[in-house]
């Protein structure tokens, strides 16, 4: 709301020059502006003039005020516009002075162009900022949480998921029971959730990098025996299967007649290291599990003598379990390749 005093007064055509002189009506009104600026509640002074048919000049002098009391105080004390006009009665048309007090119901758009501009900007930005913010939050949620879950083992991941679910339920319960939750609390919840997610994702990513670095160090370390590398990571490289006589069995990483995990679609190299005194070999069945049928993958190496090594290479085309055995000791020396 704004309070406006409008004063209408007509200056005689023949007295215009006099009104425009220093000490005249117009310059005194102009000087009055400095006084007005000191007054509490004052906003603006606006003077417009228009010339009528007789050559007289109609002056419209508006002063604008933030509240009624300030305007009343101004009107009932001097100096004010009405008093200034009255003191120059000799230049104005008799009885042309009118004083109108008005209330402006809405002034924002015409009165404060800067505020109006920022409001319009906010109206344009909101439909952009809100969906983009929601999208960014959703992406952060998906990315952050997936990184964290991938780094955790099964039990910890289940525990975290349960914790998050309970947390969301608790927050929803709180919000549902407090319909007048202040905005800063809701904002705070979002900020804390986003910070926790971002922190978790950063932790998970840095943890993963460390893990990879450690794995690489182990692989590069000369002290690590080739046969001791984990089965899964050695899928494309060499793995050593030891043939022993007492007891008569295959050994792989200390496992007797082992099940070896390999990756489907990637070449597998098995080195048979014959530590015994008998001759051994590897016969690898197809995925029907039967030896000696046309789908047999390989019967290689044909024979590995005592103290010698031989190499078998094959690529499991699809996931499945491939049985192998030593053809010379088919019941004692067995094993499985599990392709995933
Ligand atoms: Cu054998």
Which ligands appear in the coordinates? copper (II) ion
By secondary-structure content and strand pairing, the structural class works out as alpha+beta
Helix fraction, binned, reads: 40-55%
Straight-line distance between termini: 76 Å
The description of the largest β-sheet is: 5 strands, mixed
Give the mean pLDDT.
83
Strand numbers in spatial order across the main sheet: 7-6-5-9-12
Shape type:
rod-shaped
Poorly predicted runs of 5 or more residues: 215-236
Order of helices and strands: EHHEEHHEHHHHEEEEEEEEEE
Task: Count up the helices.
Answer: 8
Strand portion: 15-25%
What is the number of strand segments? Answer: 14
Radius of gyration: 47 Å
Describe this structure in words.
With 340 residues, this protein is α+β, with helices and mostly antiparallel strands. The chain is 41% helix and 24% strand. It has helices spanning 16-20, 25-37, 68-75, 81-87, 108-111, 113-151, 154-177, 183-220; strands spanning 2-11, 42-51, 57-65, 98-104, 238-244, 249-252, 255-256, 259-262, 268-274, 283-284, 298-299, 309-314, 320-325, 334-339. A 5-stranded mixed β-sheet has the order 7-6-5-9-12, with no helix packed on it. β2 and β3 (57-65) form a beta hairpin. α2 (25-37) packs antiparallel against α4 and α6 runs parallel beside α8. It is rod-shaped. The two termini are 76 Å apart. The relative contact order is 0.07. Mean pLDDT is 83; it is low at 215-236.
């Amino acid at each position: 709301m704004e309070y406006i005093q409008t004063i209408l007064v007509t200056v005689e055509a023949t007295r215009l020059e006099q009104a425009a002189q220093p000490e005249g009506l117009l310059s005194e009104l102009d000087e009055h502006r400095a006084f007005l600026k000191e007054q509490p509640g004052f906003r603006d002074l606006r003077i417009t003039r228009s010339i009528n048919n007789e050559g007289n000049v109609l002056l419209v002098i508006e002063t604008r005020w933030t509240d009624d009391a300030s305007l009343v105080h101004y009107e009932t004390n001097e100096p004010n516009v009405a008093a200034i006009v009255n003191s120059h009665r000799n230049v104005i048309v008799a009885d042309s002075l009118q004083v109108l007090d008005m209330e402006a119901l809405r002034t924002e758009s015409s009165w404060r162009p800067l505020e109006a501009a920022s409001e319009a900007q906010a109206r344009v930005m909101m439909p952009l900022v809100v969906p983009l913010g929601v999208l960014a939050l959703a992406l952060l949620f998906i990315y952050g949480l997936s990184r964290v879950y991938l780094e955790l083992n099964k039990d910890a991941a289940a525990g975290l998921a349960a914790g998050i679910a309970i947390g969301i339920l608790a927050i929803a319960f709180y919000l549902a029971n407090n319909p007048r939750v202040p905005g800063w609390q809701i904002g705070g919840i979002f900020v804390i959730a986003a910070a926790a997610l971002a922190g978790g994702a950063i932790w998970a990513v840095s943890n993963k990098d460390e893990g990879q670095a450690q794995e690489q160090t182990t692989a590069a370390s000369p002290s690590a025996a080739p046969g001791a590398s984990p089965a899964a990571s050695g899928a494309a490289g060499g793995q050593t299967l030891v043939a022993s006589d007492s007891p008569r069995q295959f050994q792989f990483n200390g496992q007797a007649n082992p099940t070896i995990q390999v990756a489907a679609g990637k070449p597998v190299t098995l080195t048979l290291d014959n530590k015994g005194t008998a001759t051994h070999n590897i016969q690898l069945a197809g995925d029907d599990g039967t030896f000696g049928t046309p789908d047999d993958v390989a019967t290689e190496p044909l024979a590995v003598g005592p103290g010698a090594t031989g190499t078998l290479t094959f690529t499991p085309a699809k996931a499945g379990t491939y049985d192998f055995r030593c053809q010379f000791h088919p019941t004692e020396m067995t094993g499985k390749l599990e392709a995933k």
